[in-house]
Design goal:
alpha+beta; 18% helix; 186 residues; Alpha-D-Glucose-1,6-Bisphosphate, Chain A, domain 4; 3 helices
């Protein structure tokens, strides 16, 4: 995601620039959202790492998040997206989230902890296996820019255009939630 240089600018929404890029592998579409920020970067990065608060931070109540493990700054997280797309199963996955450096947090889906899933999955759930993302605060002179990059294969047999619109909407909403959340207030 960091080596992509051919990002297509899709739109500007509420001072956010939204981009997408094609992948050379597996036909993934990457999403990138950027916004200049005034808010203290530590507050934003803390929101992103505070998995125990994500059910409160993320405004979409169809997304449920549970911290499974916290080991040396690597968090193992279970996330379920209920009724993301009508007439499809819920999406469930486990991801690792970790700080790469003081200004960047990465995550990726992992199968390493699928043994945890038997307590959480039922016949209405579908396990996703491919996705990753990154949150970064880039210092640009006296300004800071929050950048969120991601790809997620929803493994749904629908038009890629419709799926990508849904992905972008989910990503923008989570971006906004992380940016605007303050402990105890929304």
């Amino acid at each position: 995601m960091y080596s992509i240089i051919d990002w297509e600018h899709l739109q500007i929404s509420d001072d956010k620039n939204i981009y997408e890029a094609e992948s050379d592998i597996n036909n993934y579409k990457f999403i990138k959202i950027e916004k200049d920020i005034l808010k203290d970067e530590e507050v934003i990065l803390n929101n992103i790492q505070s998995i125990e608060n994500w059910n409160e931070i993320i405004s979409n109540k169809n997304i449920e998040t549970k911290l499974l493990s916290n080991n040396n700054d690597t968090l193992v997280v279970l996330q379920t997206i209920s009724n993301a797309i009508p007439f499809t199963k819920n999406r469930i996955y486990i991801f690792k989230l970790f700080k790469v450096n003081p200004n960047r947090i990465d995550w990726y889906l992992t199968a390493d902890y699928n043994n945890f899933l038997e307590d959480y999955m039922d016949n209405n759930d579908y396990l996703l296996s491919s996705g990753a993302g990154s949150w970064q605060i880039k210092k640009m002179g006296n300004k800071n820019k929050l950048i969120y990059r991601l790809y997620l294969d929803d493994e749904v047999n629908l038009s890629s255009m419709i799926i990508q619109k849904l992905r972008i909407n989910y990503a923008v909403n989570i971006f906004n939630d992380m940016l605007t959340y303050q402990t105890g207030e929304k």
